[in-house]
Specification:
By secondary structure, the protein is of the alpha/beta class. The protein has 13 helices and eleven strands. Helix content is about 50%, strand content about 20%. The longest helix is centred in the last third of the chain and has 22 residues. Bound molecules: nicotinamide-adenine-dinucleotide and glycine. The site of nicotinamide-adenine-dinucleotide has 31 residues, from helix 2, helix 4, helix 5, helix 6 and helix 10.
Length: about 350
């Protein structure tokens, strides 16, 4: 098991990562003072383990899926905590993917102005990214992650055993964030490009700690996302979130990969990314999703980029795109120009499809 600690002005958050982390760390929790939050799929798969490890601790189960990450479900969690008699000496345990982690984290930050939080991520995406760093949120009025708080978990327990039940599609979502880290970190990029099977379990375990280490360093430097470093973690997300908001059909991690592809196109068109490097990142993306969708109404979907928190002011769209190995670039474009490039990218995907038809 490997450990690392994120020290920020608000607290120390320790990450325990590797096989055996779940058994070793949960044995130290006080079962009498826990409030567990999970989702229906995780409960179905791990209900026996939850009972064995957390005993009679109250367990709040959300319906699985992004649709649960809302204000109404948040209020239900807080009501359940109150009726279970949760006090300040309790710890909230978030056992699940990024949806459970984000909403449970926000509930922990609000209840009695903050109770301890332990994140136990069970998806690859949550293990490599969302459980670490203290961003918590719910979606509101159709806008993603618009209500939230920075609230660091006391600890994050990352155990690869949970990935054995994860559908391949969810592995793809996690790989979306891993490839994002590849675009930000030359060491991760080198390891990704040298690896044939990105889905290999041992490889994913190595990648998990590498991504967490990258994120931990960024969060230590810029916990509140005000210094410029943390926004690099949003690479591919401006377009990814816009498509996610508009289409709703796929999962966050898939949209991150698709967003990265479209933003790579813009980076090349604006001369911010060398074609050779862009080709190598596209090859990585295509190892995970064979076919990048040529969304028919990509232009309208791109209009939703204005809701991205980076674009809260003005008529320009800011996006973080790959620049060179190990480095990202921020590209700021007038909204119409951004939508124009998105449409051009879509058209180039259609041409490619026609060529191969
Ligand atoms: P998710 O939580 O919806 O999980 C995906 C699916 O996997 C769900 O159906 C879930 O029930 C199931 N699942 C969970 N663990 C499983 C297991 N071990 N075996 C089988 N099935 C399992 O989605 P996600 O991809 O984990 O997270 C996406 C969310 O994370 C989005 O809401 C996104 O906005 C958020 N996010 C937050 C941050 C952050 O910094 N806070 C970063 C990235 C993403
Ligand atoms: N996932 C982006 C961040 O944590 O800042």
């Amino acid at each position: 098991m490997q450990t690392l600690t994120i020290n920020t002005p608000s607290c120390a958050s320790t990450i325990y990562c590797g096989s055996g982390a779940f058994a070793a760390r949960t044995a130290l929790l006080n079962r009498e003072r826990l409030f567990v939050i999970t989702d229906s799929n995780v409960k179905k798969l791990y209900g026996g383990l939850i009972e064995q490890i957390f005993g009679n601790a109250p367990c709040h189960v959300l319906p699985a899926g992004e649709r649960s990450k809302n204000y109404r479900r948040l209020m239900q969690i807080l009501a359940a905590m109150l009726s279970a008699g949760v006090t300040r000496s309790y710890t909230v345990v978030a056992l699940g993917g990024g949806v459970v982690g984000d909403i449970a984290g926000l509930a922990a930050s609000l209840y009695m102005r903050g109770v301890d939080l332990v994140q136990i991520p069970t998806t690859l995406l949550a293990q490599v990214d969302s459980s670490v760093g203290g961003k918590t949120a719910v979606d509101f009025n159709g806008v993603k992650n618009i209500i939230g708080a920075f609230y660091q978990p006391r600890e994050v327990i990352v155990d690869p055993m949970f990935l054995s039940t994860l559908p391949r599609r969810e592995l793809r979502c996690g790989l979306g964030e891993i490839i994002k880290y590849g675009a930000l970190d030359s060491d991760i990029y080198g390891r990704l490009t040298a690896q044939d099977n990105l889905f290999d379990a041992a490889f994913l375990e190595d990648m998990t700690f590498a991504c967490i280490s990258h994120k931990a360093a960024v969060v230590c430097a810029d916990e509140r996302d005000t210094g410029g470093q943390r926004k690099t973690l949003n690479l591919g997300h401006t377009t990814g979130h816009a498509f996610e908001l508009y289409y709703k059909r796929r999962s966050h991690g898939e949209y991150v990969l698709i967003g990265m592809y479209y933003e790579l196109f813009i980076a090349q068109k604006t001369g911010r990314c060398a074609p050779e490097y862009a080709r190598s990142l596209i090859a990585l993306i295509k190892k995970v999703i064979k076919k990048v969708p040529a969304f028919a109404d990509a232009e309208s979907a791109a209009g939703f980029a204005k809701y991205d928190k980076k674009n809260a002011e003005g008529s320009h769209i800011s996006l973080i795109a790959p620049g060179a190995v190990g480095g990202s670039v921020e590209i700021i474009l007038p909204a119409e120009e951004y939508c124009h490039y998105i449409a051009q990218c879509r058209d180039s995907l259609i041409q490619e499809e026609d060529k191969h038809a």
